[in-house]
Amino acid sequence: MKSLAELAAIREKMKDKVVLREGSGEIRVVVGMATCGIAAGARPVLNAFVEEVSKAGLADKVTVSQTGCIGVCQYEPVVEIFEADKEKVTYIKMTPEKAAEVVEKHLKGGKAIQEYTISNAIS
Amino acid sequence: MIRSHVLICGGTGCTSSGSKVLISTFESEIEKNGLAEEVKVVQTGCFGLCALGPVVIIYPEGTFYSRVQESDVAEIVSEHLLKGRLVDRLVYKDADESVIEEAGKTISLNDTNFYKTQKRVALRNCGLIDPENIDEYIAMDGYAALGKVLTEMKPEEVVQIVKDSGLRGRGGGGFPTGLKWSFTAANAADQKYVVCNADEGDPGAFMDRSVLEGDPHCLIEAMAICGYATGATEGYVYVRAEYPIAVKRLQMAIDQAREYGLLGKNIFDSGFDFDLFIRLGAGAFVCGEETALMTSIEGNRGEPRPRPPYPAVKGLFGKPTTENNVETFANIPQIILKGADWFASMGTEKSKGTKVFALGGKIENTGLVEIPMGTTLREIIYDIGGGIPNGKKFKAAQTGGPSGGCIPVSLIDTPIDYDNLTAIGCMMGSGGLIVMDEDNCMVDIAKFFLDFTVDESCGKCAPCRIGTKRMMELLEKITDGNGTLEDIDKLEELAYYIKENSLCGLGQTAPNPVLATLKFFREEYIAHVVDKKCPAGVCKSLLNYSIVEDKCKGCTLCARKCPVGAISGTVKNPHTIDTTKCIKCGACMDSCKFGAIIKG
């Protein structure tokens, strides 16, 4: 090890790999992964979220995790986004493409995509 | 892309309860479910809650699974990792209801009562990183402190920051660390050394082992920093051979650090050279004493030598040496990175920072806890430790192992720091905390610890070699029911004599368990010699088992259980115990379904 820069390079490379364990992301993305969710294609959606969040450099801010059946099986894959002091946003009928869009516009841009949310489907 | 980490404890506690097989089972189940690309299995150091091992934590949720068996793995993988449903029966549930109820949130480690009041500094990476992977340590700001001191700071600035932090020796003595470093730094010599005391010998203490197993790089980094600050270029870690996992991981860490050039010549291109070597101890308790430890490293029989000269002047191989305990070193990198003020903001006026305790004995949550100095014993035992099992009453806690004393229930609200413990006649010690309940006889406890020091006395000086043996004989006389009030006075006199005249810390502290129990539980000693009774019902010579006639149904079970045929009686008639034959094993009392057998 000859310089601090070398050390910093290893730290940066590894940071994304361990940040997961801090579990204190300000934003939590929860993907419904019960049988209904998996059948409707939740796994690619989950993986897309993990990948896109990391690509967008949001790994230390956003925690992507999974949960069981949220209860609205006809709208699966369902993804909920929790953010402190904000109302929960529920996205329905998600796809990997929509997931990328949500990361870009909602998680990064701070604006929920109304047309993908459950409130849009019900009203 | 990895979305989830499965952390499995690979510390000594969980390894012995079967965590090793879990790692391969998790890996094969994950493979079977096609999750190999998404989930990573990591072996870590100790999480602290050893009583509930093997422990598995799944991130990002931080779900804490306890007592996980091989047969549970398939279910955890298919339920939790695949479908995102908790395996409820394995989740550790010592959290408040409100936390569990909070919508959309799974119970995470930090919400449990065991963890929430802890403050992890020395143990910050234990259970969080893979100790066998230097990159994970670097990701947690590892070696950044070493980089900082070598490129930005002068040695005297390093010593000053350690002084300002108020850090004191965690091995038991409580000597200010910065001051110790400044002594070695001030002595010019062609060669100086850094020594780490990892000869953790107190019965029931395993703080240092956990740091070595869970975060070995932290120790390497701290010793290199100490070397730079004091002008030493070589370091030795003296570790017990009874810690095979710790030794293996430390050696692995040293090799990795050498490969990265974090040990060796010209580290960070600063011109500073430092290398580190392991020396194994052969299990003698006295080698935890600093001068005996250095004598042992030199290849001689581990015996203490008189001080002065102190190690800072004439230590290892006759050269100026700084010796610190593992936990003391484990605080150093954080102090450098976060500053002296940050460290000094935790703890009490004269005891800064945190302290790791190994909780053991009559307590629900056996394990390792790190708390700010000044936390009360009550908080440790009831809030973190989960209280005393089986609804028994707390009686006393032994700190400092065979060198320390007990804190009785009347002082349970004493804030724990170096000076408060010394004031009540205890000592901080290295951090073993053994909890005793109403069923423990304090005379017997004193005998247990003294027995240990009699065994471990190295024999070099007479007060310790002969004195502790004589004390032991007096204690045996008392617990055998042959003691007199005079014996108690003699015991006390001898104790003070040994304390004042022994050569090293072992003898100087050996009488402490006797003195502390005499101070707080003198009435128990008196009951042994005057009434010839052991109030807790432990000392066998003073016990008699008898059968209560009214309660005995004459079932004959006890007579059949008795290994020496001391119980006689006919079916459906009350039985009797022949006390001359009885060996006081208690088998009859355990077998009686009617509570008809009493001891006292």
Explain what the structure shows.
The complex is a heterodimer of chains A (123) and B (600). Chain A is an alpha+beta fold and 123 residues long. Chain A is elongated. Chain A contains 5 helices and 4 strands, in the order αβααβββαα. In chain A, α3 runs parallel beside α4. Chain A has a single domain (22-122), classed as Glutaredoxin (3-Layer(aba) Sandwich). Chain A has helices at 4-18, 35-39, 42-55, 96-108, 118-122, and strands at residues 27-32, 62-67, 79-83, 89-91. By secondary structure, chain B is α/β, with parallel strands linked by helices. Chain B folds into 5 domains: 4-112, Glutaredoxin; 134-343, 3-Layer(aba) Sandwich (Rossmann fold); 354-437, Roll (Ubiquitin-like (UB roll)), CATH 3.10.20; 442-531, NADH-ubiquinone oxidoreductase 51kDa subunit, iron-sulphur binding domain (de novo design (two linked rop proteins)); 544-599, Alpha-Beta Plaits (2-Layer Sandwich). Chain B is 40% helix and 15% strand. In chain B, a hairpin with a 3-residue loop joins β3 and β4. In chain B, 54% of the residues are buried. The chains are: A alpha+beta (123), B alpha/beta (600). Chains A and B meet through α1, β1, α3 and β2 of A and β1, α6 and α7 of B.
Terminal Cα span of chain A: 61 Å
Q: How many domains in all of chain A? A: 1
Q: Give the overall form of chain A.
A: elongated
Structural class of chain B: alpha/beta
Domain tally of chain B = 5
* Helix proportion range of chain B: 25-40%
Approximate shape of chain B? globular
Q: Give the radius of gyration of chain A.
A: 16 Å
The CATH architecture of the largest domain in chain B comes to 3-Layer(aba) Sandwich
Topology-level CATH name of chain A:
Glutaredoxin
The largest pleated sheet of chain B is described as: 5 strands, mixed
Please give the order of strands in the largest beta sheet of chain B. Answer: 7-8-6-5-9
Low-confidence stretches of chain A: none
Oligomer: heterodimer
